[in-house]
Design goal:
This protein is mostly helical. The protein has one domain (20-75). Helix content is 65%, strand content 0%. It contains three helices and no strands. The longest helix is centred in the middle third of the chain and has 27 residues, at 20-46.
């Protein structure tokens, strides 16, 4: 689906002429960042730094929601 409908991953910023490999690379990067974030959080919890671990994931979600909020019209756009 991602390969044929490239607008979903870019929130319809780019049109369908964008090659699907760039979107696949972006999805891979998102997964990699999530994995690294999990590993950092796990290390912080194991070293008794729970407050720092909570601050890291709350900060990450705050940044993610701020980005989505700044482009909410494209985020909720169902396509053409």
């Amino acid at each position: 689906m991602l390969w044929e409908h490239t607008g979903f991953e870019t929130l319809f910023y780019y049109d369908a002429s964008m090659h699907g490999i760039w979107l696949a690379a972006n999805t891979h990067l998102n997964t990699l960042c999530g994995t690294i974030g999990f590993m950092v959080g796990r290390k912080l919890v194991r070293t008794d730094m729970e407050l720092t671990a909570y601050s890291v994931w709350i900060g990450a979600y705050t940044i993610m929601l701020a980005v989505i909020n700044s482009h909410y019209d494209r985020f909720f756009y169902p396509g053409k």
